[in-house]
From TrEMBL:
It catalyses: a phosphate monoester + H2O = an alcohol + phosphate. This is Purple acid phosphatase. Residues 1-21 form the signal peptide. Residues 33-115 form the Purple acid phosphatase N-terminal domain. Keywords: Glycoprotein, Hydrolase, Signal. Residues 422-483 form the Purple acid phosphatase C-terminal domain. CDD domains: MPP_PAPs. Its EC number is 3.1.3.2. It comes from Aspergillus cavernicola.
């Protein structure tokens, strides 16, 4: 209300303010697809989400294994959705019964779309080596590098982004696109809720918020439209109260993970049925499946890997972004009491290592970290990780790269990297965003590598059933900043310890 009065009284100011929220140009053809995002949706299926600037009467995708013959067609089972303050509509189509590990060509049905392609998921148990990237805390990029720490001048405009001008991390993900098969991104996308960092946005938060989201997901589309891009939430998806004084100006779309839910709610999978011949494992997997709550917590399988995405923001005891949580964000809950924790236990208990030897759990807030440790997360999750022999924990939230030796209960695993019982942990939060990199202030025990000088991310290489290599990649050059290999014998089929 007050905002509108201000706009009438000061049209000049309004014009300046509106110009600040730099929305991408509207296409003439409103059916043009933007913000494409693939995800692994099932053992033989992939979901494809995209946004349009009009509601489509029918959202469809044509696809096939030859670029010249898109002989299959799949249409949305639900209508495209939007939310207050958004300019766009979210469309989702699921492509099922795909032949595993095969290149598929696809074209979103529109009078203005082009053919792209993806690799269909590898069957759980396929022992072909493959790589994934862990990219966390990734924000919008501008022509001159929007994410330079302490460069206030660069924070003052919301850039319109030409996707061809890919910078640092997104650029590296584009130029290495044949080197990895999927991306995991557990939290903090776009940093649209940081709109208030630019003074020019003060009276135009709603537009600034939406403009940053549109710019970011359009810039990400060349990656997320080519590779399954698996999401779970971070604190920047939660709400407006990151900085308390903005809460009075909170755009509807910014409250309670709204954009995140709309964008990824229909595209992320529920857990898969078990392929184990063990009946108990099948039952446990089905129980876990019923408790999965995508896009907040879920798991999927891919070749040698069972990957669980968790929610470190809400839905466990003293969750930092939950009701009454320490971050003051009051988000969620998204499940019933204890649902996420029960899900995680049942899901991990169901894993048959003779099918998927590697178990990775990825979430946003770390507990082994230099700075900003999430103690409630450690209390909620660490024992479960250990009990079921999680091999690698992947986190972000702290804006740099860190690697820890296998550790449990703040005690180093005596075996180190040679067949430990405890999980190895990494923080891969240096992808780059408006807040810049986080300076390393403390060097906790078990910290083996840390870098707070370079925008970077982690490549996880599944070499075989016993060797997992983790490389930290410098975004600007592609140089490997750190490389380590974890050996696990994986002798037990169902780990309990
Ligand atoms: C067609 O799509 C491209 C983006 O893929 C967009 O830049 C262009 O404006 C669109 N053309 C029309 C006529 O809408
Ligand atoms: C949807 O259908 C209506 C009625 O047939 C038509 O007027 C409109 O142009 C269609 N919209 C799109 C985006 O195709
Ligand atoms: C079957 O799976 C359960 C857990 O899922 C495990 O405890 C049990 O040992 C397994 N049985 C066999 C014969 O492997
Ligand atoms: C957030 O959304 C969830 C799911 O719709 C709902 O259960 C919860 O009550 C909402 N929380 C708040 C604070 O509005
Ligand atoms: C400006 C720039 O570096 N553009 C690059 C973005 O990424 C694509 C895909 O790798 C390259 O072809 C462009 O040269």
């Amino acid at each position: 209300m007050r905002l509108q009065a201000l706009f009438c009284a000061a049209p000049l100011l309004a014009a300046v303010v509106v110009a600040k929220a730099n929305y991408p140009h509207l296409p003439d053809d409103l059916t043009t697809p933007f913000q494409q995002r693939l995800a692994i949706y099932g053992p033989n299926s992939v979901s494809l989400g995209w946004n349009t600037y009009t509601q489509l009467n029918e959202s469809c995708v044509e696809y096939g294994t030859s670029s010249g013959n898109l002989n299959q067609r799949s249409c949305a089972s639900v209508e495209s959705t939007t939310y207050p303050s958004s300019r766009t509509y979210e469309n989702v189509v699921v492509l099922t019964e795909l032949t595993p590990g095969t290149t598929y060509y696809y074209k979103i049905v529109s009078s203005n779309s082009t053919v792209d392609h993806f690799l269909s998921p590898r069957t759980p148990g396929d022992s072909t080596p493959f790589n994934i990237n862990a990219v966390i805390d990734l924000g919008v990029y501008g022509v001159d590098g929007y994410n330079i720490q302490n460069d206030k001048a660069k924070k003052d405009t919301i850039p319109t982004i030409d996707p061809a001008l890919n910078h640092t991390t997104i650029g590296r993900l584009a130029s290495t696109v044949d080197d990895y098969e999927l991306v995991i991104h557990p939290g903090d996308f776009a940093y649209a809720d940081d709109w208030f960092l630019s003074l020019g946005n003060a009276l135009d938060g709603e537009n600034a918020y939406q403009a940053i989201l549109e710019n970011f997901y359009t810039q990400l589309a060349p990656i997320a439209g080519r590779k399954p891009y698996m999401a779970s939430p971070g604190n920047h998806e939660a709400a407006c109260q990151e900085i308390p004084y903005t809460s009075g100006l909170c755009p509807d779309g910014q409250k309670n993970f709204t954009d995140f839910m709309h964008r990824f709610g229909q595209t992320m999978p529920t857990s898969f049925p078990s392929l184990s011949p063990n009946y108990t494992a099948q039952v446990l997997a089905n129980q876990a499946r019923a408790l999965a709550e995508p896009p907040f917590w879920y798991s999927f399988e891919y070749g040698m890997a069972h990957i669980v995405m968790i929610n470190t923001e809400t839905d466990f005891e003293s969750a930092p972004s939950g009701q009454g949580g320490s971050a003051g964000l009051n988000g969620g809950p998204f499940g019933t009491k204890n649902q996420q924790i029960e899900f995680l236990e049942l899901d991990l208990a169901s894993v048959d290592r003779s099918i998927t030897p590697w178990v990775i759990v990825a979430g946003h807030r770390p507990w082994y970290t230099s700075g900003s440790a999430c103690t409630p997360c450690q209390e909620a999750f660490e024992d479960i990780f250990y009990k079921y022999g999680v091999d690698l924990g992947v986190f972000g939230h702290v804006h740099n790269s860190q690697r820890y030796l296998p550790v449990y209960d703040n005690t180093l695993d005596p075996n180190g990297m040679q067949d430990p019982k405890a999980p190895m942990y990494i923080v891969s939060g240096g992808a780059g965003n408006i807040e810049g990199l986080s300076t390393v202030t403390t060097r906790p025990d078990f910290l083996e590598f840390v870098n707070d000088q370079d925008y970077s991310y982690a490549t996880i290489r599944f070499l075989d059933a016993n060797h997992l290599q983790v490389d930290f990649v410098q975004s600007t050059t592609g140089e490997i900043l750190d490389s380590s290999t974890l050996f696990k014998s994986h002798g037990e089929r169902f780990v309990r310890q």
